[in-house]
Known about the structure:
By secondary structure, this protein is mainly α. Among the domains are: 3-83, no CATH class; 205-325, Serine Threonine Protein Phosphatase 5, Tetratricopeptide repeat. Helix content is 79%, strand content 0%. It has twelve helices and no strands. The chain has helices spanning 3-23, 34-43, 47-65, 77-83, 100-204, 207-217, 221-233, 238-254, 258-271, 278-292, 295-307, 312-325. Helix 5 (100-204) crosses helix 12. It is rod-shaped. The two termini are 137 Å apart.
Amino acid sequence: MPPANIFTRLSLILVLFFSLIFNGCSYLPWVGEEDDDLAFEEDFPFEDEREMDRGERRRARDDESGSSEDDFFAEDKGFSDMDAGDDDFIEGEPDGFASIDQRTDKSELKGDVESLQSQQEALISKVRELEEILSVLEPKINAASERLESDISSVTDSSDFLEPEVEDLKAQMARLNEEIARIKMQKAQAAPVRKKRMRRTSAKNPPEYDKALAAYRSRNYDESILLFQNLDLSNPPKKLKDNIAFWIGTNYVALEMYDDAILQFETVLNKFPRGNKAHDSRYMLGMTYSKKGETSRAVEVLEGALKKNPPAEVRGKILAQLNQIQ
């Protein structure tokens, strides 16, 4: 028998012994009022039996394991055996057995997890494919956007560059329309008077003058120049001297002899500033400078001619020449 059980029983024997010596039998549990004890036992008839059964079971376990009743720190083999049991035991089950429903749920969960994993792998592969496509398309998109931006900037620059020219052309068109309307009005008013003057002048012009003018209109410029020079040397009427110099200069322009033409037009302007060919000479002088390549000088002469208030017909020619130069 283990020493702990021996010590416990000796302690109980000593307590009973001292209680019998000093107090008699009044403290013994079986000595005293038997009626009360019987009543107590009748109320709890199975209490002693339960205690006896528990004691016997406990002794049997102690004998098997080699430990005493009071050994509270002994290792419990029941729980160790339970831990070393089958793998089918589920945590939380007191008996250590898994139910059929739990096994079914576990298999279903396992299938769902596998399905989710396969779906995740498919999505990952799809994302990688899309990333590869995007990496291929991204340079093309960037190049297209750069080309589009460059085209837009070039169009914007060209529109900004052309906008002043468009506004200038609109202003010139407006001025031309005004001049055309004024010319038409003046032409309608002065047509009868001009016809009478032309008839009178043509009647009074010498035949050499008409012959030289006809040669110019027939594009026989050399012949026309000789005829006008011979007429100038034959002491013609004063009213024809500015006309002779003007037509000689016009023949020189047709022959591209611009310096000689400029001398003739300047002669008209210097000697006959109030003659009937002064406005025409200014126009022809500006046009001659333009044909010669002296654009700034041509613009200066033509703008000065506009300031002299020329007739509507000559004004229209001057404006047209300015638009052509500019």
